[in-house]
Amino acid sequence: MKKTVLAFTYAIFFIASQSHAWTKTLDFENGSVGAQAFSIYTNTSYSKDYFHSGSQASKIFYPAGGEGETSGGNYRYPPGISNGSEVWFRAYFYFPSDFDFRASPVSKLMRSKNGAGHMGITWYSDGTVGAANELDMSAFVRTNPNWENVFKLSKGKWQAVEMYFKFSPAAGSGIFRVWHDGKLVLEDTKTPTIASGYQVPGSFYGAYWNGGAPKNQSMYVDDVVWTSDTPANRDAQGNAYIGLGKGNSSSTPVLADSPPVAPNLR
């Protein structure tokens, strides 16, 4: 009888937990070309230049010398993302063949707040991607010898980048994973991933270029997913992940009637 009650109690708890799971997706199909895609990011717009699926994506313009505070995207999580919470975050990125990655020292690609800065990934001037956990950077570096060389971004093709966070203030209880095109390239299960008592407000892509962009240029983002609902897909190691979505990629720009005009930033 006791086992039956315990099983029933667990089932109710599991169902209740799942009922509070959420998913946010962005496919950028429903906005007018050229219109602003985010209210706070004036340099992020809907575009048909390149797309991973459908016929549109998000174009993120970086003005020369600008640090990109208005170039990116974000999602504000529902309340309650804290100790014990799990979040998966995946996006597809496209960098044109003439894209210049130079930064001083890095440009942010994807990140989440964790109560003491951010946890996420950035690129260096050669397109190499590094990872960081500013809650305890010295412990993170000791645990992850490849933290400055997690993978390398490609140009002229769409690529999927995904992160997973299990938030915990205790060493050995939190998890931070990174996948590139479906391959697990970083896993840290030792460094704390959230400050004690902190609630995570959300996460970002783009949005900051240290030292300023070297020239006027744009990157593209499509098929973005944030979720707290455990995905059905599993990677080669058996970890739950969003994985690779199907797309009808356009790697060749759709030519407009006139060349795009950079927005007036003054």
Order of helices and strands: HEEEEEEEEEHEEEEEE
Task: Report the total helices.
Answer: 2
The CATH architecture name reads Sandwich
Domain unit count: 1
The computed structural class is mainly beta
* CATH topology heading: Jelly Rolls
**The level-1 CATH class:** Mainly Beta
Shape: globular
Gyration radius from CA atoms, angstroms: 19 Å
Mean residue pLDDT: 88
- Strand percentage, roughly? 25-35%
Beta strands, count: 15
Helix content: under 10%
Describe this structure in words.
The protein has 266 residues and is mainly β. It has a single domain, classed as Jelly Rolls (Sandwich). Helix content is 9%, strand content 35%. The protein has 2 helices and 15 strands. The chain has helices spanning 2-19, 137-143, and strands at residues 23-26, 36-38, 41-47, 57-62, 72-76, 86-94, 107-113, 118-123, 128-133, 151-152, 158-166, 175-180, 183-188, 202-206, 217-227. The strands form 2 sheets. Strands 1, 2, 3, 4, 6, 11, 12, 13 and 15 form a 9-stranded antiparallel sheet that branches. β8 and β9 (128-133) form a beta hairpin.
